[in-house]
Design brief:
binds nicotinamide-adenine-dinucleotide, alpha/beta, 43% helix, N-(1-d-carboxylethyl)-l-norvaline Dehydrogenase, domain 2, 3 domains, elongated
């Protein structure tokens, strides 16, 4: 099929590339021409594992191309996917200005296109949008053009850091359609990705739009729940890791997404949870649980800072701390709403000097913090002369470090582990004072014994 993708960010680029990989002819469009130039030069404007090779191969084989000219990109398309950003507006609702801008441009294109007088253009909304957006986009297009079109919804569930794998082998594909023909086209397009009997779920556009918000709210709820329980464990003399294992074996609960940490962030959960609350407010339905999930998370982003303040007391100003991990999660360079940002701001304000390391996110962090931080290419380099180590993101390479080397490099052997990467007893055995999230602490050299 001939496909256009409007918005070549994390979702648009991954979706377009994977659709090209399955044999479609795909043009990715973006209004930021600098991004298009990077892609045309065979490079990536973002970090996403496994993506570069796919982009290069599909460009070489002429199935994938990039342009900042919407008209040129749409010229031959049978289907256009809208993958533009839908950030948070000041009132918490989703800001749809990018979607409406694309709608206006699509209408202009349709008015001048001879192709779509007879054969309809299928416009597919992949961006995360509030319930009712599909209908509104349909009405906007219908008021501007007499050309033939249909608007479908196809929310995206990929995870940054595993986006290619998620798109290629989705748990499910959800489509919201109003006609059998739209369903047929989308079913055909996704068939290569669903060969292992993964479901293709057809519903109304409104249900498809709602599904995406409910999925993200559920995932955010799981994390906020375990974070709240972790904080409680600390006060009760229990260890969240034991409790987590104790509940996870119950098949009704399971293990996934029940790892405590310094709060959830990223480009989706914060804005989508806020947008869901705004939707509920608009229709005067209470969303008490989701509001609490958000409030718990705001507080959780400050838990690491509290532990650091409690440890150093009045001596905090003037200390130097090493920070490992800045991206909102491992395997991405995305720092949107990352918990690390809250911590960095807090520590800078407290007069702490910071030596930071992240395998991929440092250019994005530098763009915000400039010379206020010391950027270290290697994790151990960040420890040199630092008074302690704070771990914010659980990159794989932090999991099995050389504790002896770390102890030699740090001025004081103390680790604030925001991801519970280490066993308190093991770290204490290496002579460290250790603070986890909801873990029992251990005296350096002794067994796990007291709460943090
Ligand atoms: P992004 O910011 O990385 O990319 C969006 C792109 O759209 C940008 O490159 C921007 O320049 C472009 N754009 C905006 N307006 C445009 C216009 N009028 N014409 C052409 N290009 C335009 O955003 P993203 O992370 O890819 O997210 C896109 C959507 O997908 C959002 O609604 C998001 O909530 C949703 N989503 C994101 C993820 C994720 O993990 N990032 C996962 C599922 C769903």
């Amino acid at each position: 099929m001939r496909i256009a993708i409007v918005g070549t960010g994390y979702v648009g680029l991954v979706s377009g590339t994977c659709l090209a990989e399955s044999g479609n002819d795909v043009t990715c469009i973006d209004k930021v021409s600098a991004k298009i130039q990077i892609l045309q030069a065979g490079k990536l404007p973002i970090y996403e594992p496994g993506l570069l090779e796919l982009v290069q191969r599909n460009c070489r084989e002429s199935r994938l191309s990039f342009t900042s000219d919407l008209r040129q990109g749409l010229e031959r398309a049978q289907m256009v996917f809208i993958c533009v950003g839908t950030p948070q507006a000041d009132d918490g609702a989703a800001d749809l200005s990018n979607v409406w801008a694309v709608g206006e441009e699509l209408a202009q294109f349709l008015n001048s296109s001879t192709t779509h007088k007879s054969s309809p253009l299928l416009v597919v909304i992949k961006s995360t949008v509030p319930v009712g957006t599909n209908r509104k986009l349909h009405d906007l297009l219908a008021s501007r053009t007499r050309a033939s079109f249909e608007v479908a919804s196809n929310p995206e569930f990929l995870k940054e850091g595993a986006a290619v794998e998620d798109f290629m082998k989705p748990d499910r594909v959800v489509v919201g359609v109003r006609s059998a023909e739209a369903e047929r086209l989308l079913r055909e397009l996704y068939a290569p990705f669903l060969r292992t009997e993964r479901p293709f779920l057809v519903m109304s556009p409104e249900s498809a739009e709602m599904t995406k918000y409910v999925a993200n709210a559920m995932l955010a709820t799981k994390i906020s729940f375990i974070n709240e329980m972790a904080n409680l464990c600390e006060r009760m003399g229990a260890d969240i890791n034991d409790v987590r294992r104790g509940i996870g074996h119950d098949a009704r609960i399971g293990f996934q997404f029940l790892f405590p940490g310094p709060g959830w962030g990223g480009s989706c959960f914060p804005k989508d949870v806020q947008a869901l609350i705004a939707m509920a407010r608009n229709v005067q339905v209470p969303a008490r649980l989701v509001e609490s999930v958000l409030a718990v998370n705001e507080a959780q982003k400050r838990v690491l800072g509290s532990k650091i303040r409690a440890h150093y007391g009045d001596a905090l100003a003037g200390k130097t701390l090493a920070v490992w991990g800045l991206a909102f999660k491992p395997r991405t360079d995305d720092i949107r709403e990352a918990p690390a940002l809250v911590l960095l701001d807090e520590l800078i304000a407290a007069g702490v000097s910071l030596r930071v390391h992240d395998p991929e996110a440092m250019p994005n962090i530098r763009a915000i913090y400039g010379e206020r931080l010391t950027y270290c290419d290697r994790p151990y380099g960040a420890l040199e002369g630092a008074d302690g180590l704070v771990i914010v993101t659980e990159w794989q390479e932090f999991r099995n470090p050389d504790f002896e080397l770390m102890r030699r490099l740090l001025v004081e052997p103390v680790i604030f582990d925001g991801r519970n990467l280490y066993e308190p007893r093991t770290v204490a055995g290496h002579g460290f004072k250790y603070y986890g999230i909801g873990r029992l602490t251990a005296k350096p050299g002794g067994p796990a014994c007291s709460t943090a």
